[in-house]
Design brief:
This protein is an alpha+beta fold. It is built from six helices and 19 strands. The strands form five sheets. Strands 4-7-3-1-19-18 form a six-stranded mixed β-sheet. The chain has a six-stranded mixed β-sheet with strand order 8-11-12-13-17-14. It has a three-stranded mixed β-sheet with strand order 2-6-5, with no helix packed on it.
């Protein structure tokens, strides 16, 4: 049996095969064969260089492209039922094939023994209420009741005696969510501010729903949990911390702490920084701002301070050399689509002896 295994979260940046347009983006041209081949080979090369055995992928549009990546990288098991190769769209101008998305997917060298996609929020957190006036009865429900991109929840058999619950998520981006009447008015700072607030509200609602799924999967059992996610927010952001859960009060009773620890997730980036000093924890660069948007979280079964752990997070490497800070670029401009605009965190987990 291998002493350790590696896991990764990977935003592929619009994984699509040639000849297919992005749905709703008529100005974007389909990939050429050359760009496509370079892109899938690069994704597979990163996965192989990281010796990855289990990965959550984001921004998938094409089953054909995903299958090619898994073949090149040597993955035997895939779960990505929402991805289609595109449907024919007839317009006055021409007939063409468009691909819906983006979606998430799970690829594994271990057996995926059960899996589902989650679109609707769990009932307990559907339509969270907020107080809209001074009276306690002045309540309004948030109209966000489903994930914009379906979340994957799967059971993966890591070894004969260990089955992990694995989540793959891609939450709402920070891109301003504009109303139809605001389209074309993006230069208005108040319009963009309101659009950013709407995006945050959607992402916050999705975070609560994802937290509910995680709590249900973690508590009252010894089953490890892994979350792969482009959460579109930094590690310290409120939305990210909602998903992970809050550490119990320092002076709480041990029995109460154990209940909370059972429901917590731990960032592999946090665990790495507790053991070392480094300043390269970023997976995205936007307008010169270095961000950690791509996260791997694990439950207490992988936490090094847990005496009952079954394995330990040993190290996390972020493949981000391909990212380009436009402020320092010799030739400023958008990077080639044959790569990704996100770094790829790869975490090694060592089995407990």
């Amino acid at each position: 049996m291998a002493k350790s295994f590696a896991i990764a979260t990977f935003n592929t940046l619009n994984l699509l095969h040639p000849g297919v347009f992005f749905a709703g983006r008529p100005n974007d041209k389909p990939y050429s064969t050359g760009v496509y081949e370079d892109k899938v080979e690069w994704i597979a090369r990163v996965l192989k260089e990281g010796n990855v055995s289990l990965a959550g992928l984001q921004e998938l549009f094409s089953a054909t492209a995903l299958n090619k990546v898994t073949t090149l990288a040597g993955f035997d098991h895939t779960y990505a039922p929402d991805i289609k190769d595109g449907k024919n769209i007839t317009s006055d101008a021409n007939d063409r094939k468009e691909a819906a998305g983006p979606f998430v997917g799970l690829i594994s060298k271990y057996p995926i023994i059960a899996a589902r996609t989650v679109v609707e929020f769990p009932d307990e957190v559907k339509g969270i209420e907020i107080q809209s006036g001074e009276a306690a009865t002045d309540l309004k429900r948030l109209p966000v009741t489903r994930f914009q991109r379906p979340v994957i929840q799967a059971d993966v058999r890591l070894r004969d005696d260990v089955t992990a619950t694995v989540f793959v998520a891609h939450l709402k981006s920070k891109r301003p969510l504009l109303l139809e009447r605001e389209t074309g008015d993006e230069k208005n700072p108040i319009v963009t501010a309101a659009g950013s607030a709407r995006s945050l509200i959607v992402r916050a609602a999705e975070s609560i729903a994802l937290r509910k799924l995680i709590v249900d999967a973690t508590q009252d059992n010894q089953k490890p949990v892994i979350l792969f996610g482009d959460l579109n927010d930094d590690l310290s952001a409120v939305t990210t911390q909602i998903i992970a859960g809050e550490e119990p009060f320092r002076f709480a009773r041990l029995e109460d702490k154990k209940v909370e620890w059972d429901r917590l997730l731990y960032s592999v980036h946090d665990l790495e920084e507790q053991e070392s000093y480094r300043d390269v924890s970023y997976t995205h660069i936007f307008n010169g701002r270095y961000e950690l948007l791509d996260h791997i979280f694990v439950s207490q079964e992988f936490f090094h301070r847990n005496p009952d752990r079954i394995a330990t997070v040993r190290n996390t490497r972020i493949f981000n050399d391909h990212l380009q800070d436009e402020r320092r670029a010799v030739n400023p401009g958008r990077g080639p689509s044959r790569r990704s605009d996100h770094g790829i965190p790869v975490t090694e987990i060592e089995w407990q002896r």
